[in-house]
Design brief:
about 350 residues; seven-stranded mixed β-sheet; Spore Coat Polysaccharide Biosynthesis Protein SpsA, Chain A; globular; 11 helices; three-stranded mixed β-sheet; alpha/beta
Length: about 350
């Protein structure tokens, strides 16, 4: 059971500290509350906006926090549901007469859904060999590898469906008949279409098969990535920025488990660092894409989608990033990550 104090963070703590704390608690909100008295709130959305404005991971939380938070006195706790609906927020701190946080009411505990909708198609690249998941993929294609009771591709589609996505197009190749058979027998409230690759065209090349079929912005996803994000907000951000392509990226924090030595001239030591920490953004393999990209794909070209993005970026087109916390990203591209995903999903149910 999470204690209220575990969601407190000091105003002088760094943005990186807050990201670590969000990951540890599994929540999307922290409170700046010296001696328990509410001063400000910091959500994952606040962090994202701050970083997109040019903030750094070393900046203090006080630069990104919202110092006009919504709250309720203990006597008005019953208004929490209506307050969250009115302002589209996910949590309300409950304060005593001294302004001290005594409890927090979360939207997910009240069955409130404040997420924006994004009723656009989803294109899934589902034709790869899945060699990193061998020997599983010797029997099943990667999209049908089970994570708990359902295959990964179905779990991914279900996440998008929650945001209003009702049209799914799967680009298939390896063991494609098994994929078609599975979704053909599945009772769903969304439609699944298939585009057949006759040769492997990479994570981007298969889009050429959709020419003339895409007339709106769409989500483009790998078949091994599960994100816990507000896809409605991702879509709204993409449109607001006027991007041709928006890449969803996760902040990764990695501590090298060894002392690192930099080599100097003539075999000398230039520098030594004990277990240095690295912070970087990594591509999750999920994007928002404008239909023009499909029409401009070269027929039969074998190319990865990151290379497609780089081609547009080099040509001066507007491509952007939507950053998320590392804890919001689950990837099953390798055996070890597959087991982590299974464990995490079990914890969530």
């Amino acid at each position: 059971m999470l204690k209220v104090e575990e969601l407190f963070i000091a105003p002088e703590a760094t943005i990186l500290d807050s990201m670590k704390k969000l990951d540890e608690t599994g929540q999307r909100i922290l409170f700046v509350a010296p001696q328990g008295k509410l001063q400000a709130v910091l959500t994952d959305g606040d962090l994202r906006k701050f970083l997109l404005r040019g903030g750094t991971l070393e900046d203090p939380v006080s630069k990104a926090a919202n110092y006009s938070p919504k709250s309720l006195p203990v006597s008005e706790r019953g208004r929490a549901r209506s307050l969250m609906k009115e302002y589209g927020i996910d949590a309300v701190p409950i304060l005593d007469r001294s302004g001290v946080i005594t409890d927090i009411v979360f939207a997910h505990g009240l069955d409130i859904d404040n997420r924006k909708q994004a009723p656009i198609p989803v294109v899934m690249m589902a034709g790869g060999l899945g060699t990193r998941l061998y020997p599983y993929t010797k029997i099943l294609p990667k999209p049908l590898i089970p994570v708990g009771e359902h295959p990964i591709s179905e779990l991914i589609i279900d996440r998008f469906r929650d945001f209003g996505c009702r049209r799914v197009i799967m680009i298939v190749n390896y063991k494609k008949n098994m994929i078609k058979s599975y979704f053909g027998d599945l009772e769903t409230d969304y439609t699944v279409e298939f585009a057949d690759e006759t040769e492997f065209l990479g994570t981007g090349g298969g889009l050429c098969l959709l020419k003339g079929k895409m007339d709106s912005t769409f989500f483009f996803t790998n078949c091994d990535t599960l994100l816990d994000v507000d896809f409605g907000d991702v879509y709204a951000y993409h449109k607001h920025q006027g991007n041709l392509i928006t890449m969803i990226c996760a902040f990764k924090h990695y501590t090298v488990p060894y002392g690192v030595v930099d080599l100097g001239p003539d075999g000398s030591i230039a520098a030594m660092r004990e277990k240095p920490e690295l912070n970087f953004l990594t591509n999750t393999g999920v994007y928002v894409v404008e239909p023009r990209v499909v029409e401009e794909m070269r027929d039969g070209e074998k190319i990865g989608f990151p290379d497609v993005i780089e081609r547009y970026r080099a040509a001066g087109e507007k491509v952007g990033i939507y950053p998320i916390n590392e804890s919001c990203w689950m990837d099953m591209g390798q055996m070890e990550e597959l087991e982590k995903m299974r464990r995490k999903l079990e914890e969530q149910t």
